[in-house]
Write a structure and sequence with these properties.
Length: about 350
């Protein structure tokens, strides 16, 4: 579908913030340095807000690392389970082949002590003996083929075991990475809570109000249509998720982190997106911000550690950070790194 260029819409390039830190607060925090004892208490509050905002950003980066490692761990578990199933079936085939070959070998051993010429001489029915000898020769040829097949099966089983061992070793490393990212996220969030709890109650309440101030009601949107039916279905799902809580590491349906919301929304449209925001930015064709259409994915920051869905009229739907529900915010709420059409 052809892109419909239009002049920048309200909020497309506006530096509105979705976190507890405003642009003015960021400037104040950067210039704060070592404040004298007589400094305005509001400066200390703004500095705390800036620290909390940075902690949320760092927690989000660690969350995406957790998502990536956790997704890989799930994939490895499936691969290991499949390998174990294949190994069990291969071992069963090998055992059956060994049993058959062992029976033939035992029969040959029991009858192999007599010289064939003497056995023919003593046979009451020489013609019958010759028929049996010819059959035995054919059995021996088939046995040789079966033996080769047994060896091929054994080599394949050994290869499968080696691959399973590598997968298990990687799974263990991935488990360690998952645990490490989880500790980082929990540590950043705990530090943010500690800083917020240290603020005077009036300031805490103001920050709480700011966290809940994003729009959860449908804002006025333009009549611009999504780029495809799947984008329309994903956008409808994302709108239905508005108001549900941010839960780090979650991809719905009761709670979401930023990339989890995008994965779940497009999943409702029958489209499988990668788990992380960094991978989602490459899950389609990148377009310019001026050409953004409803349903497009908007990735933020240079490392694409945050992502939302363009809803039209300069708005995105996203899961902002802990304590803030899924909501609408201006698309220019933070630096944009890419816009992707799935």
């Amino acid at each position: 579908m052809a892109s419909h260029r239009r002049p920048p819409q309200p909020g497309l390039n506006r530096g509105a913030t979705v976190t507890v830190l405003s642009a003015a607060a960021a400037t104040a925090a950067a210039a704060l340095g070592a404040a004298p004892a007589s400094a305005d208490p509001r400066d200390s509050t703004e500095a705390t807000r800036a620290k909390v905002d940075r902690l949320y950003e760092q927690a989000e980066q660690a969350t995406e690392g957790f998502n990536k490692a956790d997704d890989r761990a799930k994939q490895l578990r499936r691969e290991v389970a499949q390998s174990q199933d294949k190994m069990a079936r291969a071992q069963e085939r090998i055992n059956t082949m060994r049993g058959a070959l062992g029976s033939v070998a035992g029969a040959q051993y029991r009858s192999g002590g007599m010289d064939p010429a003497l056995a023919l001489l003593l046979s009451e029915d020489p013609d019958s003996y010759l028929d049996k000898a010819a059959t035995l020769e054919r059995v021996s040829e088939r046995q040789a083929d079966d033996l080769q097949e047994l060896r091929r099966e054994q080599r394949a089983l050994n290869q499968e075991r080696a691959e399973a061992m590598r997968d298990l070793a990687e799974l263990e490393r991935t488990r360690v990475a998952v645990a490490r990212h989880k500790r980082v996220v929990e540590g950043k969030l705990a530090e943010a809570r500690r800083l917020l709890n240290a603020l005077p109650s009036a300031e805490r309440e103001a920050i709480d109000r700011a966290s809940r101030s994003g729009r959860t009601a449908l804002p006025p949107l333009s009549g611009q249509a999504p780029s495809s039916s799947r984008a329309a279905a994903a956008l409808m799902a994302a709108r239905q998720a508005v108001g549900r809580p941010y839960v780090w590491g979650a991809n719905g349906p009761s709670g979401f982190d930023c990339s989890g919301l995008m994965q779940w929304s497009y999943g409702q449209a029958g489209v499988g997106l990668p788990r992380t925001s960094q991978a989602q930015r490459y899950a389609g064709r990148q377009v310019s911000l001026a050409d953004a259409e409803p349903g497009d994915l908007v990735a933020y920051r240079d490392d694409a550690s945050h992502i939302g869905m363009y809803a039209g009229n300069g708005q995105v739907i996203h899961a902002p950070y802990p304590g803030a529900p899924v909501r609408y915010d201006p698309v220019g709420m933070m630096p944009i790194s890419s816009v992707t059409r799935v």
